[in-house]
Amino acid sequence: MTMFVALALVAAQGDPLLSIDLPAQPVGAGLDRLARQAGEALVARPGDLAGRRSPALHGRMRLSIALARWCAPAGLSCRRIAGGIVVRALGPVPRAIPLRARPAPPPEDPMTGPDVIVSGRRGMTVQGELERSYSASHLDAVELARRAPQSLAELLSGLPGLWVDSSAGVAANTIRVRGIPLDGYQAIAVQEDGLPVQHDTLPWTDIDQFVRPDLMIESSDYVRGGPSAIFASNAPGGVLNLRTRAPRDRAGGEMRATTTDYGLIRWEGYATGPVGGGWRVIAGGSVARDPTVRRIASTLGGGQFRVRADHDVGGGGHVSLGVHGLDDDTLNISSFPMRYDGRRITPLPGFDPRRGSFLGPELTRLRFAALGDRPLGRNNRNRMVTPSLTWTQPVAGGVLTLRTHYRASRTERYALSSSGGAIPAAQAIADALPRLTTAFPATTQIALRHASDGSAFVPLPGNDRVIVLNPVAADTRLNEAIVDLSYAHALEAAGHHDLTLGLYAVGYRWDFRRAVARALLEARDQGRRLDLVALDGSGRVLGRATDDGLLSTGSTYEAVQGRQHMIALYAADEWQLGPRWRLDWGLRHERAALSATVERPMFMDGGDPTTLADDRIAVGSGLSDARAKRIARTAATLAVHWRASDRLGAFARATRAMRLPDPGVFRIGGSDQPRALTIEQAELGLIWRRGTTGLDATLFASRFPDIALPDLSLDPATGAVRVGAYQAAARTIGLEVGAGAAPLPGLSLRATVTWQDPRLQSYRIASLTDGAVTVMDLSGRIPRRVPRIMASLSASAALPGTGVTLDGDLSAMGRRYADDANSLALPGFALVNMGARFDATEALTLRLRATNLFDRIAIMQGDALGGEVRAGDNGGIVTVRAQQGRVVSLSADWRF
Questions:
Q1: Residue range 292-306, pLDDT digits in tens
Q2: Of the candidates 874, 13, 30, 34, which has an alpha carbon nearest to the alpha carbon of residue 464?
Q3: What is the mean pLDDT of residues 857-881?
Q4: Alpha helix locations (H) across 376-456?
Q5: Confidence check: pLDDT of 603 > 80
Q6: How much is the pTM?
């Protein structure tokens, strides 16, 4: 009754009379048409619109009546205020009839779910898919539940234009965005509810260390290129926006329990409802015990929580308070040895590339000279707390939005970094002979023995190899504050304008310490540590090249205290020139002040005369150098959109994007004069929809006039890690296509293909060989890890009258190269996933899923240290990393 009284008051103040002709469709698309017809601004939260539909509405009626009739069946409240139309959910998506009796629902857009865009733009109105002037993908709650990703990399897998490597584990994975030869998450911004999870990807402080998808994530959007460089920092390749669940007016929730064939146990869930005083609250999270799919000696796990409280304030405003906490251990696996015959890569006896690791009982703990005794086998220990505030308020006919958070995190990150290929034991002995005979002149023979008990090293059949690895311990802390203030306003001036003005500011302090050791191990699963022992003629031990299996307890040490303060101003406009034409433009200007205090390492002798391993140990000196840099750049984008018909939209876009450097460039061996990265991009896109069939196609091109390609290498004399970079240029042209259809009730199909031709340019490497300088020209080569073709196919079929839905995925990737020199080709592969869902009751759903069903070996990348510019081949053995093997999981969802 209150709602209808309010609507009557609005009508008395001037309620426009409209001719309504809305077919049954997603509620957001109809709201957009009503708002445009009435000349009103529209404000809606994305989560409130997702998955809701309204029946057809026809006739001549007042706007207030149309809003009531259109919104009520979808469970929405649509109110007219001075600033426009405000939409809010009254509860969950309505369910009209029992599950078993319900016919198959009309399929939503097979490409992106609901026909409403909520990312890649900031404006007053809801925009339909055919109005989009950029490439985008949407993952709704149904798709997230089907795939149940455990990591950010798994969530991104299968999206067009992304090469995603999830083989490292839960965190510290890497991706590559179409046309951009940057590793990790340097080319995309990862956001939660429109605010970055972390402003910068920093060395050993990766964004995906702090993202754990669970039931509190309702949906996500990934915007590629174009406007991403305007609405986010460090996002030349795109923006991934994870949308968390909003609190509801009615009590409810969901719980999920998951187990796998390798012993994972995971609980996740949320509960929501009103708490009085007009507040609505949701609380949830997850907890896990994870023995990991890889064979490691430790059991990992931990959990996270989120709490969010929403409240409507006077004048149609809205405030949301939240806090996100995380404390867990996560898997992080490096590369390992495999056989290579010039065409095929096959397993080395004793090492399963799908489930193996070096993290055995003898590497659960390790003593680093600079950092002391550390639990190496725990992999990554991540802790974070992030309170946040979002406030939206209609002001002067527009909408003012404030988003802000403070984030404090700490990571103790451990890894076993590869450092070249496995070599025969005899070669290891021969290599150590000169040093040992010089240090211990009475040496007559050298033996390889297990460090733990002194027993002799016995090779495996077909595998007499040993390997040198670099155990790493890195302590990082990040304290960061982010504020994003934007104002959206619609106005009429030579057409319709949807204008956005914004200010973004960030300040953070990053504390980083890292120590690297060197260990000699058997080249096999959970290989034992080995000692190189010098013996005299009677077999008496004279000394060792190692210390308890360590060639060095400190080959590398670095410590940086970095700071950045940055402010950005941005503006964007969607200018409707006519019924079918629109001009979209955007500008972003960033100014940053970077500074760092870099501690100088010093080298000391440990003082043990019986071993060479402590002769030169890197530790902190207590002496530091100060570095500072101020830098500013501007990004711009311009797009023309053409709404050709009710089924077809097309766009052309040109963008000049940029990425400012971070304090990590001041590390030892890094640049004293950091530079901004500039990317020139062009896109030509087509979006077609007809009923349940859709097609997206985007032709893209990018150019990097000047890019620093990272190069990590080892000092051959000391084994210290050297940080460097080579200057080059790069260009890419490509095409990405996505198609979807629902040809029958309950059946949906989706396919994506990305083809690209990336090339390095002006890329020359000078090296010193036998006193002569040799120049290697890599111009024209394909950048490391970038496939020329990627494809995926997904199908889902609901079996009528059974409550059972079957689904499957096929993902394929073409040949890539492990190195910029293109000397090591990584073979293409195809992986199959299968799943089944059983809706036992209205409240209970069971899911069974198998990933990598046929247990294929899928090689993803090469040696991260010393093998990315030109890969090494040690007698037919290369260092690579493969995806995990087959995993079968069972989960149960209960809604209440």
A1: 999 999 999 999 999
A2: 874
A3: 84
A4: 425-439
A5: yes
A6: 0.86
Q: Which two tokens stand for residue 512?
A: 């980083």
Structure tokens at 201: 């990807």
Q: CB neighbours (10 Å) of residue 839?
A: 18
DSSP designation for 216: T
Largest CA distance in the chain: 108
Q: Are 878 and 895 a contacting pair, CB within 8 Å?
A: no
Contact 117, 127 (CB under 8 A): yes
Q: List C-alpha distances in Å: 559 to 368, 471, 622, 808.
A: 15, 17, 10, 47
Gyration radius (Cα) of the chain, Å = 29
The total number of residues written for the chain in this structure: 896
How far is the C-alpha of 9 from the C-alpha of 1, rounded, in Å? Answer: 13
* Strands 84-89 vs 42-43: parallel, antiparallel or unpaired: parallel
In this prediction, residue 532 carries a pLDDT of 96
- The token duo for 358 is 């070096």
* Nearest Cα residue to 641 out of 687, 672, 604, 599: 687
Distance, in Å, from the CA atom of 866 to the CA atom of 713, rounded to the nearest integer, reads 4
Pairing of strands 238-244, 188-192: parallel
Q: How far is CA 636 from CA 235, 642, 686, in A?
A: 13, 20, 22
CA distances from 443 to 18, 284, 536 (A): 99, 65, 5
Best CA proximity match to 687, nearest among 722, 643, 721: 643
Distance CA 329, CA 567 (A): 34
Residue 563 · residue 626 · CB < 8 Å: no
Residues 493, 488: Cα–Cα separation, whole Å? 16
Amino acid at 813: M
- Two tokens, residue 581: 């034409």
Distance CA 710, CA 677 (A): 13
CA angle at residue 564 from 562 to 568, to 5 degrees? 165
3-class secondary structure, 64: helix
Q: In this structure, what token pair is assigned to residue 120?
A: 């890649």
Average pLDDT over residues 170-175: 88
Residue identified by tokens 């000349």 is 39
Copy the structure tokens of residue 381.
Answer: 């220990």
